Amino acid sequence: MSLDYSLLKKFVRQHMLEANLPINNLATTVDAIRSITDKFAERGWSVSKIQDESSRHRKHEIKSPEGHIELSMIGGKVYRHPVSTEQICRRKHLTKKMLDLASLPTPAGADFGPKEQGVARAFFEMMPKPVVVKPTDSGSSHGVTVGVTDLSSFNSAWEYALDEGRHNSNVLIEEFVRGVELRAFVIGESVVSVFARIQPFVVGDQRSTVEHLVDDLGVARSVHYRAHRMPVKVDWDFVLKEGYEAQSVPDSGEIVFLNSFNYPSMGSFLVDVTGDTAEGIKDLARRARASIPSLEIAGVDLLVEDISDTSTATVLEVNTAASLDLHRYPTHGSPRQVDEDIVEYFDSLR
């Protein structure tokens, strides 16, 4: 995996360290599902809970007072789009086709069937390195390998993608785009929230060891309920590739990333950048949502070199079931009440 994190470090310095952005104090959380159903009920909508013992998700049916609008709700996802919309967003190569049709910037790449490894290998050899290998149909980020540069790692990434993908999944090979990953939450024509996903890091003070800085980070994160429940998982092999060991003393201001993942479960930081993100980048998110037929609410993933420069942005994915709590409870910056925005959007259509 490439360890060129210059763009990410630039973001951290500009938008977190120089801004002296603290970790938010968060004593507890409020259930988004209960919040949404209560808010619909307060506006006179009928809300019916569906008992489905086979599902781990809570399901509801929601109907406007006049009966003109009928919505489904699974977990925190409120929708009325057809199954075909779900299929497009669930299968990454179909999403890419829609994004390409809308002339949106996407990573170069192609998908291949499980029995086409030879053709895929030839394609991989022709591509600029590194690349990303991932299943076209999988949950979350399962089966994704980033930074593939040689045939040995490609073969391993191919098998991992097939193992983690669903039974009908192809394997997608894409160029690796460097930058900061953003999640934009789009409701209709409005981008109501944007946050940056930042993998966990510590900052050197020229006195403390990396191990001691990690301990201090754990204490700092304890003020945020969600961050405290998902402590940082340090990958010491990854840290070693950056040139540090547990007892190393980084220079003052030096940023040391602790693992290669920007998932909350791995201790990542979520930084609200709604007000700082260029309007052109937000427009790309709007267009990405609109590129998927019948989709009204979406979490759009983008990679950017600079959140103020639209020309550096690339659209990665469009999600129909984006986590609301990532926007409601960021570790840094302003919380966004996207649950209220969802209810307001549908109520305005009555």
Automatic annotation (TrEMBL):
InterPro entries: ATP-grasp, ATP_grasp_subdomain_1, Dala_Dala_lig_C. One of its GO terms (biological process) is SOS response. One of its GO terms (molecular function) is metal ion binding. The lineage of its organism: Bacteria, Bacillati, Actinomycetota, Actinomycetes, Micrococcales. Pfam families: Dala_Dala_lig_C (PF07478). PROSITE patterns: ATP_GRASP (PS50975). Residues 96-347 form the ATP-grasp domain. GO terms for cellular component: cytoplasm. This is ATP-grasp domain-containing protein. It comes from Brevibacterium aurantiacum.
